[in-house]
Design a protein that fits this description.
It is built from seven helices and four strands, in the order E-H-H-E-H-H-E-H-H-E-H. The chain is an alpha+beta fold. It starts with a strand and ends in a 23-residue tail after the last helix. The structure holds adenosine-5'-diphosphate. Adenosine-5'-diphosphate binds at residues 49, 52, 57, 61, 91, 109-110, 112, 115, 118.
């Protein structure tokens, strides 16, 4: 099954909606394969957001991402990368569709509640960045046959 990285950002922790956001992934039928709270550092954010490093707002994003600890999650499921991105919504919460996490919980382009990997390739890189192999669990949750048809997994 495909795996993707989700980060519950300080905007989720600070507003005390982490549980609600986790619950959305669970209710969708996705599998939580790894989860822990960590404090992000300047070094790891330079790596994680390397594509934004030249933007004028980069120092602000970094400060925002280090404002509280975050929760990092490995989420598994068929087509998990695309499914989680769709649930997340577009970057700016004001433009994100209602029903998406950002659309329902964010009014901001920066304080947008979650990070989700944008491709299968990046998901692997990002999971390796935040998790040791032994922190990601391979187990079969109850009721998998109610989440998928036999030929889907
Ligand atoms: P996404 O998180 O949707 O994949 P990006 O990788 O482009 O989007 O940006 C990473 C994060 O940087 C965003 O989630 C957001 O928190 C922040 N960010 C991106 N663009 C802006 C912006 N123009 N102003 C403020 N923050 C931004």
């Amino acid at each position: 099954m495909e795996a993707t990285l989700v980060i519950l950002k300080p905007s989720a922790i600070g507003r005390a909606i982490a549980g609600e956001v986790i619950s959305r992934f669970e209710k969708k039928g996705l599998i939580i394969a790894g989860m822990k709270m960590i404090q992000l550092t300047s070094e790891i954010l330079d790596e994680h957001y390397a594509h934004l490093i030249d933007r004028p707002f980069f120092p602000r994003i970094k400060a925002s991402m280090m404002a509280t600890p975050v929760v990092v999650m490995c989420i598994k499921g068929k087509d998990a990368v695309q499914v989680v991105r769709a649930m997340t919504g577009v970057t700016n919460g004001r433009n994100a569709a209602p029903g998406t996490i950002r659309g329902d919980y964010s009014m901001s382009g920066q304080e947008n509640i979650v990070h989700a990997s944008d491709s299968v390739e990046n998901a692997q890189i990002e999971l390796n960045r935040f998790f040791k192999p032994e922190e990601i669990f391979d187990y079969t949750p109850e009721g998998l046959n109610y989440r998928y048809a036999n030929d889907e997994i």
